Amino acid sequence: MLIVAAILSVSGAAIAAASGVFVNANTHTYNHGWQHIAGGPGENLNAAGTNWGQVVRRESAGAGIVYPAAYAAWRKYAIKHFRPPVKCPAGSSPGCKVEESTGMINVNIAQSAFCAWVLDWRQAELNGDAAVARQAAAVIAKVPRWKAVTDIKYIKGEYSGDFGWIRPFMRAVAAGDVSKVNALIASNTGSWFWFNDPRGFMVSYSKRINRTPQRSPRKAALVRDEGASYLHYLDQHGAP
């Protein structure tokens, strides 16, 4: 499950910067009490910050999140993709800004990184590259100990929903079972791998779904088979 837990706050700062004007993503504010459950741990970052990318990259690395060397584009995409909308909703208080905790941002990025490592392992297995497969499997086994994961253990439903799905993949990788990993991807289990892939699959497949008449069996089949179609895409294009 992918989450975006953005919160609105009111301050005198503008919600967006004019061209060339620096706006700091760091707010040095943190959630307490009920907000610590609803908004998550860590510093609340200003989505309008002009240094958003740099701050999130630093925070995610500090939370233990690593990507395979070939997946630098995935990290860049995740940092951009999981940025909340900069503008406040219509009717918001004057001077409001959109903030999201580093804890919740890191949850999304950690899921993206886990998908990248699974695909890195899968491709190495298919290529017969035992050394790369062993390295990827070792990282996958350690993901539950990443700070990005352990930081939200206190939010029980959030933790189980966001990271419970990784366990079947971990078991399949530990067993060296590529067929099981393929079946899990095809069955749309947990985080949708193609949602984190910066290449063109998601855009082209969404167009196919949107062109298909509503309530038609074909449309239902397309939605159901998205995981299997992505698996076919991987076999055609490789990963990443």
Structure explained in plain terms:
The chain is an alpha+beta fold and 240 residues long. Helices cover 52% and strands 8% of the residues. It has twelve helices and four strands. The chain has helices at residues 34-38, 52-62, 72-81, 102-127, 130-142, 147-150, 156-163, 166-174, 178-186, 201-211, 217-224, 226-237; strands at 6-10, 26-30, 43-46, 96-101. The chain has a four-stranded antiparallel sheet. Helix 2 (52-62) packs across helix 3 (72-81), helix 3 (72-81) packs antiparallel against helix 4 (102-127) and helix 4 (102-127) runs antiparallel to helix 5. The chain is globular, with a radius of gyration of 19 Å. The protein starts with 5 loop residues before the first strand and ends with a helix. 38% of the residues are buried. Residues 1-5 and 7-18 have low confidence and may be disordered.
In the predicted model, the low-confidence regions spanning at least 5 consecutive residues are: 1-5, 7-18
Give the domain tally: 2
- Report the average pLDDT across residues: 89
What kind of assembly state do the chains in view correspond to?
single chain
Distance between the termini: 22 Å
Overall geometry = globular
- Spatial extent as radius of gyration: 19 Å
Describe the main β-sheet briefly. 4 strands, antiparallel
Strand order of the largest sheet: 1-4-3-2
**Proportion of residues in helical segments:** 40-55%
Number of strands: 4
Helical/strand content category:
alpha+beta
Please count the helical segments: 12
